[in-house]
Amino acid sequence: MHFRRAITGCCMLASVASCSGASTGPYGNTGGQQPSGSAGGGGPVGAVTLGPDIRFVSSHNGSQNPAVDTIPAGGTVTWTWTGSLRHGVQSLGSTSFSGSGIKNAGGAYSVTFTEPGTYQYDCAVHGTAMRGTIIVQ
Ligand SMILES: [Cu+2]
Fold first, then answer.
1. Range of the domain at 115
2. Ligand 1 centre from 51 Cα, in Å?
3. How far is the CA of 16 from the centre of ligand 1 (A)?
4. Is 14 part of any domain?
5. pLDDT tens digits along 64-80
6. What is the pLDDT of residue 24?
7. How far is the CA of 108 from the centre of ligand 1 (A)?
8. Rg of the Cα atoms in the chain
9. Which of 19, 24, 66, 123 is the most buried (most CB within 10 A)?
10. Are 123 and 56 contacting, i.e. CB atoms less than 8 angstroms apart?
11. In 3-state terms, what secondary structure has residue 50?
C-alpha cells in the first residue's frame, strides 16, 4: 500500500530548496492563522495546500477556509495535496476556472489566472467545509 519510490530523496531536495528560514514548516506556526500583514506565513504567493485535514491553507499568509491569496494577473496558483484525504479544487461562481477533479494525497494542480477578478472555490469532496478565494489583480 505504501509507495516509497524516491520520496525520501525528493523530500530532502525539497527541504533544502525551500528551507529559507522557515524551519518549522508550513504548520509550524503555533497560533493558527497568521496576522494579516506583510510577514504572513512566509511561503510564496499563490501556493495553497489541501489538508492534511479538511482545509485549504494559503502558504503565503496562513489564511484557511477560506484560504485567501492575492496574485497579479498572469500569476499562477499551485495547490498541493497533503495528508491522506482525497480532495479536489472546484471553482464556484461566475468567474470560474478549470477545476482539478478529485486527487489523492501527493497530487498537485496549477492554474494560471490571466483575467483580474475574484475566484471562489471549494473542495470537490468536502464542499463548503473547505473553501478558498483567489483575488487576481
Ligand atoms: Cu477536501
1. 44-136
2. 7
3. 29
4. no
5. 999 999 999 999 999 99
6. 39
7. 13
8. 15
9. 123
10. yes
11. strand
Grid cell in block for residue 116: 483580474
Give the HSE-up count for residue 117: Cα atoms under 13 Å, Cβ half-sphere: 13
- Which cell numbers in the block locate residue 46? 499563490
Helix, coil or strand: residue 42 = coil
86 CA → ligand 1 middle, Å: 6
pTM: 0.71
| Strand, coil or helix: 88 | strand
Helix, strand, coil shares, percent, the chain, to 5: 10, 40, 55
Instruction: Kindly give the distance from the C-alpha atom of residue 57 to the centroid of ligand 1, in angstroms, as a whole number.
Output: 11
In this structure, the dihedral spanned by the alpha carbons of residues 116, 120, 123 and 126, taken in order and rounded to 10 degrees, is 170
Query: Does residue 65 form part of some domain?
Result: yes
Which CATH number fits the domain that encloses residue 90? 2.60.40.420
Per residue in 9-67, pLDDT tens? 333 443 333 333 333 334 433 334 444 444 457 899 999 999 999 999 999 999 999 99
Place of cell 490571466: 114
Does residue 66 lie in a domain region? yes
Structural domain count, the chain: 1
User: What spacing in Å lies between the alpha carbon of 17 and ligand 1's midpoint?
Assistant: 28
